[in-house]
Amino acid sequence: MCSPGFSCDSALQVTYIVRGSGRVQVVGVDGHRVLETTLKAGNLFVVPRFFVVSKIASPEGMEWFSIITTPNPIFTHLAGRTSVWKALSPSVLQASFDVDADTEKLFTSERTSDAIFFPPPN
User: Fold this and answer.
1) Nearest Cα residue to 56 out of 42, 74, 37
2) Which of 38, 70, 113, 115 is a Cys-bridge partner for 3, taking CB atoms 3.0 to 4.6 Å apart?
3) What is the mean pLDDT of residues 84-92?
4) What are the C-alpha distances in Å from 28 to residues 1, 88, 95?
5) Which residues make beta-bridge pairs with 17?
6) Where would one find the signal peptide in this protein (predicted)?
7) Taking 80 as the threshold, does the pLDDT of residue 8 lie above it?
8) How do strand 33-40 and strand 75-77 relate by DSSP bridges?
9) Do residues 45 and 15 lie in contact, with contact meaning Cβ atoms separated by under 8 Å?
10) Are 53 and 45 in contact (CB under 8 A)?
11) Do residues 62 and 20 touch, judged by C-beta distance below 8 A?
């Protein structure tokens, strides 16, 4: 699974599934899901500017490549080293999720620097 991420610089992303299969979710700027589907090798999908995308491989795995419409794309992820969560103050997180300080501290303490997640071995 890749952490949900988006282009900060208005780049359009065209992704081709080379091998394997998996699920893809795309969420628009208004927070509504615009695509949730299973893709397989040979499929192509487009992620519009500023939309968030997450790719979740099936057990067989999924390989893809993307073409980006800008020469110097700037991507950020909702997890990992470049996570946008790091920019938010604890009080903003508490208000946004309607949680107390202890829950917010638990949330921030569980974050890692990984943007690509692997399932545990069987």
Assistant:
1) 37
2) 115
3) 69
4) 19, 21, 22
5) 64
6) none
7) no
8) unpaired
9) yes
10) no
11) yes
What's the mean pLDDT in 44-58?
Answer: 88
Does 107 score more than 90 pLDDT? no
Query: For 37, phi and psi rounded to 5 degrees?
Result: -150, 165
Q: How far, CA to CA in Å, does 86 sit from each of 31, 61, 90, 102, 111?
A: 20, 30, 10, 17, 10
CA distance 19 to 21: 7
Residue closest to 86 by CA, chosen among 77, 98, 95, 97: 77
For residues 6 and 2, what is the distance between their CA atoms, to the nearest angstrom?
Answer: 11
pTM attached to this predicted model = 0.62
